[in-house]
Amino acid sequence: MKALIIDDERLARKELASLLEKHDHIHIAGEAANADEAEALIAEHHPDLLFLDINMPGRSGFELLEGLEQAPQVIFITAYDEHALKAFEVNALDYLLKPIDPERLDAALNKLRQSNEDAGSQRTVLREEDQIFLKDGEKCWFVTLKDVRWFESEGNYVRVRFADQKPLVLRSLNKLEDKLDPHVFFRANRKHIINLRWVDKIEPWFNGGLMVKLKPNTKTGQEGEQIEVSRRQAARFKELLSL
Fold first, then answer.
1. What is the percent of the chain where pLDDT is above 90?
2. Residue 57: cis peptide before it, omega within 30 degrees of 0
3. pLDDT for 120-134, tens place per residue?
4. Which structural domain, as residue segments, surrounds residue 84?
5. Same domain, yes or no: 63 and 84
6. What is the separation, in whole angstroms, between the first and last Cα of the chain?
7. Do residues 116 and 6 share a domain?
């Protein structure tokens, strides 16, 4: 498992790297002292796990995660305990206080291993023809996946767009992405997953990105929505749709 250590304190990075030496399944692919360095390393190495400090010069650890389209699993390493609640709101695996207790680190990595084993045993990719059950308040729907035009992240919830409906369901966009066929449902940016079957037009956009226009919904008379494909995802998008 590839991991990055992101902490502005060199000695803290060194201490953590030393504690991780006995964990053979964790490979430290790099270290960063701030969010800018971390972003470059994440783009280069595509790590599975971040050991992430919160309070750093410039952007905080939380701000780094907010800017990522696909965040790896995260174990926060910090000297302060007041951020614990927010850490779990962003689905952090664990939250360790400095100086790091080796037993707490072991427990966090055991939790990581168990989480990955559970995900592996439960993961089933949904097909276009599969129906999904959605519930928002008192309303319920059975929807065929091919009829879903796009998904939009709203915090820990996802807005599901189909027909003239847009229910809000309790699920993170990252977890939803794991269950969708990547050849049909594409992660356009950190907030949106689009159904490629609904793509109508594609235009170049700012900073190397793309603007995708979806097909109009003939059943409801709705115009096709426009969704931006980020610069990072644009190359992959072109690759998927090219011969």
1. 55
2. no
3. 555 568 888 888 888
4. 2-122
5. yes
6. 33
7. yes
Same domain? For 57 and 93 the reply is: yes
Side chain identity at residue 23, one-letter code = H
| Whether the bond into 72 is cis, omega within 30 of 0 | no
Q: What is the pLDDT of residue 200?
A: 93
Beta strands 168-170 and 94-97: pairing type? unpaired
CA 55, 56, 57, 61 torsion-angle sign: negative
Q: What pLDDT is attached to residue 120? A: 57
Enter the pTM of the model.
0.58
Query: Residue 136 pLDDT more than 70?
Result: yes
Parallel, antiparallel, or unpaired for β 210-214 and 226-229?
Answer: antiparallel
Six token digits for residue 61:
């650890």
**CATH number, domain containing residue 97:** 3.40.50.2300
CA atoms of 23 and 180, how far apart (whole Å): 32
Please tell me the total count of domains within the chain: 2
pLDDT given at position 28: 96
